[in-house]
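Hi U.,

Before I forget, here's the chain from the pilot set. I'm dumping it here mostly so it's searchable later in email.
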Amino acid sequence: MTSLVRLDRDLRVDLVRGFALWVIFVNHTPGNWLGYITPRNYTLSDATEAFVMLAGYAAGIAYGAAMDRQGWFFAATRVMGRVFTLYVAHIFLLVVFTAQVGLSAARLDSAAYLDELHLDPFATDPYRALLEALLLRYQPSFLNILPLYITILAMFAVAMPLMRYPRLMLALSAGLWAAARVFDITLPSWRGEDWFFNPLAWQVLFFIGCALSYRPPGGAPLSVPWRRWAGVLCGAFLGAGAVLTVMIWFHWDYTEATLPAFAPYLAAIDKASLHPLRLLTMLALTYLIAHLLPRDAAWLRSLPGRVFALMGQQALPVFCAGIALSFLARVGLEAEDTWWMQIVVNLVGAMALVGLAMLTAWYGAEKRGAPRTPRLPSPPQPDRN
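Structure:
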């Protein structure tokens, strides 16, 4: 584990992203008791916001440096190469997920799986469903995060030079987010349904991450200095958000009965187009974590910290495995919803995610390593007889 974690990076970013990937696995497993303690139960944002923002942060570091060294066109081709990798991963995950859900539905005689996960078109019109899935115009449940990432990254390939003008980039991004919300602008889909994650709105988080990480030649990244009053305001906002989240998730009937005029505003806190309260929650969390968690904190290099950091550094395979494993975990919990099955599902799932991260990191380290010099055969020894 120690040798596989890349310590030359900001481990805070990797740790939060690894934690978000583990949370995605837990939250996508219905009936998982750990789902009651994940951040979505006490903040107005969840792991998806963290995933998108940190993806932008990583893109600003990696592709911004490539743009400054070798120009926009070269950097854009690298971004589009990453887009292609993500697209292939999405199609592979689509095939695996559809196969395991379809097989489970047939073996367990449960068509509800297909309806609930929006996979029923594969039963009624499979060829059209496959074509629309390849075009990203059809996205079954749980398979909508990678299309969001693919689309935003393609937008980033075009808008990359704007990183040199961070305030202009953020103004344009915020304008697009506002327009997408106000005028209900989204990308087309097959059956007339909106994208579950509207890329035209969610891109604002990605570009905020870019602006915070990009370091222009001879300059410094966009700075957001610490102010005590701002920290107190962020803490108060997150506290109020925790109360609202509890009202939404655990006491909705009581909220509707006692606050009939306020309940519609809570119900309107949508995820598809990134409601302002969800956006502000993510920004408040980022501000506090960035300033209150030192980059060189010793516990970041502890075993738990390195485990999450390693998963964050191998985000794509860990994410894909987490989505596939979440359905298997669901089937297991539905077959035997007991405390020991809860332990087995979560322990095996976590071990599988960490094991895959270790394997991927080891393979990447081998590819980056210097080629080994082949050992030459020893010269023949003279016959002493």
